Amino acid sequence: MSMTNEALLEVAGLRAWYGASQVLHGVDLRMHASEVVALAGRNGSGRSTFAKALMSMVAADGARRFAGADLAPLRTFEIARLGLGYVAEQRDVFPTLSVDENLRLGAVKPRKGRRAPRFTLDDARALFPILHERRAARAGVLSGGEQQMLALARALMGDPDLLIVDEPAEGLSAQMTARVGDALRALRERGVAVLLIEQRLALAPALADRIAVMGHGRIVFEGAPGELAQREDIVREWLGVG
Description:
Helix content: 25-40%
CATH class: Alpha Beta
Distance between the termini: 32 Å
Strand order of the largest sheet: 6-7-8-3-9-10
CATH topology: Rossmann fold
Number of strands: 10
CATH superfamily: P-loop containing nucleotide triphosphate hydrolases
Number of helices: 10
Largest sheet: 6 strands, mixed
Structural class: alpha/beta
């Protein structure tokens, strides 16, 4: 895949390892501004490793550029400052701090030569009303769904142009999953691109512009949700459905 300046995120030939164990075997992926792309696959397919490789959290090589910048030599906090946000599956809120304190920790100063951040504390509260209601509560006493919303809102306080969200619906009720879906949809409307990592595709069919399916550390399918629905062979072999 040739690398151009047209896409917000461009990845070509990405490989990654945990120690001596290679997990990614040459992944290609492109994303544009305000686009939602779902990355699907069975457990162990390399989805979460792909996210960590983009954030320089695992050993990796291959071409990876974001907003024209080469990510390879950068450290995780430097990548975040470029506008690439990451919400891990574990959510990683600070349990002893209040909701508002968690949100304030995520805030960043405007990046040099950039507009003012598009998300303020008031914006986060408006997007996730439950966080305003529970603003003084310690994050550790929130429900799983509330913690997911707090993790999303805190990531937005970093003013990302692209947000990677790993398994946002895992362990949530249908009602809370729908609320998280509404929040992700609102992010796209504000111009934030989303890389949505899911195994069970709870949110992707209604949200994603494209779905990329990963298997054995490679992309084995990429297309619109409707195209994937017609590929029973891909769904059965690589997603374990059907």
